[in-house]
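The aim of this short unit is practical: by the end, you should be able to scan a pair of folded records and say something sensible about each. We start with the first protein, listed as its amino acid sequence and then its structure tokens.
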Amino acid sequence: MKRVAVIIGHDKTSPGAYSPYLHTSEYMYNSEVASYLGGIADIYKRPLGGGYTTQMRKLAEMLNPKNYDLVVELHFNSFSDSSANGCEAIVYPGNDFSYMVGYDFCQKLSSQYQTNNRGVKEHGKGDRGFVFLSLMEAPAIIVEPFFGSNEEAEKFENEAKYAELIKDWLKCI
């Protein structure tokens, strides 16, 4: 079995997007999801202090010496246009393993939840999440299973059910 680290996206001081459908932020939602993943992955919160780049550097200093096979950061999307929907995975450009893992995540999730599969996006310098993706020595992926700004978020009200999907996905890697 692969060694996996799961990072809860955002932190308590910068909780990320808020879903009016779930009545919670990315940080709170994904903290609950992560609470069900302890048996299959090591769970981490972003280090507090400094901005995003500083937090990612601290995270890389913690994780890189542990030689993980995969590092996954949990998020959900949000957009001002409430018609935006679907799941996607974000990976470092040219990393075939991360791309395949992201493809599998999107396929599994869109099939189980009957949502739009937006696919895998490669994010380069200047793109959202690039610093995280570029600083991890292990293949890294950001998962965005749904848009919290859309009523599709209601399909994800049960954090334990979503966590089971993640567990099944990680077992197949």
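Turning to the second protein, read its sequence before its tokens, just as you did above.
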Amino acid sequence: MPATETVDAILRGLPGPVTLYPSRRRLILILFGCAVFDAIGIKMVADGAPSGWPGLIFFGLCTISAAGALLPGAVSLKVDQDGFQETRLFRPRGSRWQDVSGFGWGAIGASKFVVYDDVNLAGRAFTMIKLIAMLNIVTTGKNAGLANTYGLSAADLARVMTQWRERALALLPRA
């Protein structure tokens, strides 16, 4: 199905909920790539090279994470009339449409992803989440982002999120 039709089909789901899932093909490629680098680290350590440990540990964690993401229900994005909930390795985190704005897409290297501003991150005390938000602002101009594009291009997912938000906010009762 062409991307425009996919985006339109998702937007017809309002008020929702509509749940999007990541590309399994992409997750399998990531898992395979991590496993290859993990194997290189194992070979280096087995050959007595201590410099293999950092790569072995890093790519070992990446391999476990990628394998976990392939489990049913581990990763998803649910959008509805009230907001959206992103589940990352079985840990859901939601935002209300009133609290987010400015959906767009950013890139770091070849990786493209959806970015946005979340008012709840701006006023937080200095924590790891606040540090990540500050780094996001430096790299993308926005303080938050989605971890996956859920089978769409980053531009298409940003368009879905923007239009869904606009339509959902228009349905809210006026005070």
